[in-house]
Write a structure and sequence with these properties.
This protein has about 280 residues and is of the alpha/beta class. Helices cover about 55% and strands about 10% of the residues. It is built from nine helices and eight strands. The strands form two sheets. Strands 5-4-6-7-8 form a five-stranded parallel β-sheet, sandwiched between helices. A three-stranded antiparallel β-sheet has the order 1-3-2. Helix 3 (about 75-85) links the parallel strand 4 and strand 5 (about 90). The N and C termini lie far apart (about 55 Å). About 35% of the residues are buried.
């Protein structure tokens, strides 16, 4: 796990804060000095906080849990999408859908609807629809893909959030805190670090600053995922697990039935929406 050096952070511009008049007094412990009316962040503390956050994220990834990356600002979108894809983690780079965490079952229902449309495309049901119905469903699928496509594999609430710019993503932070989900965040001098579990004091407006921090934390998570793979390979096979008990088979069957129910409901909803539109 490689933590960026002081020089790397300096070159990326991680030390630049906001104007002094825009500062949040709670960020005082992370501010080194003020120059030309701009606060300068203490990069030694930034490096220490990156290392602390990286260790925690590495353990989360090693345990097989998901971390949701959130950044809807222009400077961070591409970096977040690329890094999250590399380690197969969910991310949100478009508008944060309100209630995504606190009303997660509804979000899952919308994702099931998208899955149902994909099933209709594969099994030939879509070909039997009229031109108008096809157009409506295609538009609906595109909208769902844009807003929820990046979290399609998120079957349960994430174990942690990684946020860029806590002021812009204050709704996501508030939902996570309400549910007790730990929040990792790049926090600038104009933000409040008190609501954040793992604060990384740094410039959250420069793409280079965001990228150098993401490289470190995602690199640590990638190491955690590799360690998980190695442990799985080295783990001795349990012969008893090869022959599941009757109770275990019943549980599996019940889970499969529960998983199938939302998909059937979503398919009915898609057809009903098309009929209403007519």
């Amino acid at each position: 796990m490689a933590t960026p050096t002081f020089d790397q952070l300096l070159e990326a511009g991680c030390h630049f804060g906001h104007l002094k008049r825009k500062w949040n007094p709670a960020m005082a412990p992370y501010i080194f000095m003020e120059r030309n009316g701009i606060h300068i962040i203490d990069l030694y503390k930034t490096a220490a906080k990156i290392e602390e956050a990286s260790k925690a994220l590495r353990q989360i990834a090693k345990s097989g849990k998901k971390v949701l990356f959130v950044a809807t600002k222009k400077q961070a979108k591409e970096a977040i999408a690329n890094k999250a894809k590399e380690i197969n983690m969910p991310y949100v780079i478009e508008r944060w859908p309100g209630g995504m965490l606190t009303n997660f079952p509804t979000i899952r229902k919308a994702i099931k609807k998208m899955t149902t449309i994909d099933k209709m495309l594969k099994d030939g049901t879509f070909d039997n629809l009229s031109k108008r119905e096809k157009l409506q469903i295609t538009r609906q699928r595109a909208k769902l893909e844009k807003n929820l496509g990046s979290i399609a594999d998120l079957g349960r609430l994430p174990s942690a959030l990684f946020v860029v710019d806590v002021m812009k993503e204050h709704i996501a932070v508030a939902e996570a805190k309400r549910l007790g989900i730990p929040v990792f965040a790049i926090v600038d001098t104009n933000s409040n670090p008190d609501e954040i579990d793992y604060v990384i004091p740094a410039n959250d407006d420069a793409s280079k600053s965001i990228e150098v921090i993401l490289d470190a934390v995602c690199g640590a998570m990638a190491e955690g995922l590799e360690e998980r793979k190695v442990e799985k390979v080295d783990a001795p096979e349990d012969k008893e697990d090869d022959a599941p008990s009757a109770g275990k088979r019943r549980r599996v069957r019940r889970n499969e039935e529960r998983a199938a129910a939302p998909a059937a409901e979503a398919e009915v909803e898609v057809k009903e929406e098309v009929k209403e539109a007519e």
